[in-house]
Amino acid sequence: MEAAVKPILLVAACALIDADGRVLIAQRPEGKAMAGLWEFPGGKVEADETPEETVVRELHEELGVETKIACLAPLTFASHTYTDFHLLMPLYVCRRFWGVPEPREVQALKWVRPQRLRDYPMPPADEPLIPFLIDLL
Ligand SMILES: Nc1nc2c([nH]c(=O)n2[C@H]2C[C@H](O)[C@@H](COP(=O)(O)OP(=O)(O)OP(=O)(O)O)O2)c(=O)[nH]1
């Protein structure tokens, strides 16, 4: 019997970048899958949204940060098979945003130099994204 095809989960994520070229990562909350791992802010793309709208909404909800679709630039994407789904995750970068990020729906936030991202345990889907940020910054 053939294995069932896993559903594709579309998640949109964003690397906020500060004036020093550091990237913001967020620690996943307790009680959720992959709790405690560090990830790029973002979330599932809802049925009525574009990925860019998802990023703008999630930055507001998770961090209290405001930005605009025009301030998002696509960098790369993750494509990774988890147990229950296949994750497809465009990663945007954003250098222009308003407000100081605060950890509203996450455990903690950290501004990290791209070369130091490997010091923070991330979901397996995220590891291939790191070289793109190192190249960019
Ligand atoms: N936001 C974000 N999600 C990531 C990253 N890497 C990665 O594998 N994911 C996965 C974790 C989750 O399975 C999914 C994002 O879903 P989510 O954060 O909106 O939802 P969740 O798992 O917290 O579950 P829910 O309670 O909100 O339904 O993508 C990343 O860098 N950022």
The CATH architecture name reads Alpha-Beta Complex
CATH superfamily: Nucleoside Triphosphate Pyrophosphohydrolase
The CATH topology turns out to be Nucleoside Triphosphate Pyrophosphohydrolase
Calculate the mean pLDDT score and round it: 97
Describe the structure.
This protein has 137 residues and is α+β, with helices and mostly antiparallel strands. The relative contact order is 0.26. Helices cover 15% and strands 31% of the residues. The strands form 2 sheets. It has a 4-stranded mixed β-sheet, with helices on one face. A 3-stranded antiparallel β-sheet has the order 3-2-7, with no helix packed on it. The mean pLDDT is 97. It is built from 2 helices and 7 strands; from the N terminus they run ββββαβββα. The chain has a single domain, classed as Nucleoside Triphosphate Pyrophosphohydrolase (Alpha-Beta Complex), CATH 3.90.79. The radius of gyration is 15 Å and the shape is globular. The protein binds 8-OXO-2'-deoxyguanosine-5'-triphosphate. 8-OXO-2'-deoxyguanosine-5'-triphosphate binds next to strand 1 and strand 4.
